[in-house]
Amino acid sequence: MTRAAASLVLVLVLVALSSTFTKYVPKSGQRIPQSLSRGWGDQLNWAQMYEEALSLSRSTNKPLMVLFLEDCSQLLKRALAHDDEIQRILDEDFVVLNMIVETEDQNLSPDGKYVPRIVFVDPSMRVRDDIVGPYSNRLYTYEPKDMKHLLENMKKAKKTENGE
Fold first, then answer.
1. Is the pLDDT confidence value at 117 over 80?
2. Which region, left, alpha or beta, applies to residue 43 given φ > 0 means left and ψ of -120 to 50 means alpha?
3. Which keywords accompany this UniProt record (predicted)?
């Protein structure tokens, strides 16, 4: 094999490998990181305020996922931000909001105000208190090992709204 052919094969192998290990990129292309994500998924379009998120949810007919996360868990942040399937579904099928300051809406804290907490709201603005995490003492808490559970809950929130 000639040196040029060997170089071409090497380049093709590297291209194939790099495409295998790429992160999820939204259909609209790589987005400029937003400070609103606070590292929880920089390529997502994050709502700024709860009222804006409710309006977007209603107008797009997409469920809202409200994250009460702060920076309490770097491991949870890493797990959520690096799960390509969760990031893809959030990008395509959800409105997302990262709450830093606790809201006065008591519906968003059905079992108390704590972090981390993830709550779903449907486009009719009904808080989905029936979609809970795996823990009985804090119903809306997820840990890094619970990404499959969170993914299933995201599918429930989406499925219920789409009538699928």
1. yes
2. alpha
3. Endoplasmic reticulum, Secreted, Signal
Q: Are 107 and 127 in contact (CB under 8 A)?
A: yes
pLDDT at 104 over 70: yes
Burial class (CB in 10 A: 0-12, 13-18, 19+), 110: middle
CATH number of the domain located at residue range(s) 47-158 in this protein: 3.40.30.10
Bridge partners of 119, per DSSP, are 66
Look up the pTM and report it: 0.74
Interatomic CA distance for residues 100 and 23, integer angstroms: 26
Residue 127: count of CB within 10 angstroms of its CB: 18
Run of H or E residues at 120: strand 117-121
Average of per-residue pLDDT across 63-88: 85
- What's the CA gap between 36 and 108, in Å, rounded? 19
At residue 21, the pLDDT reads 43
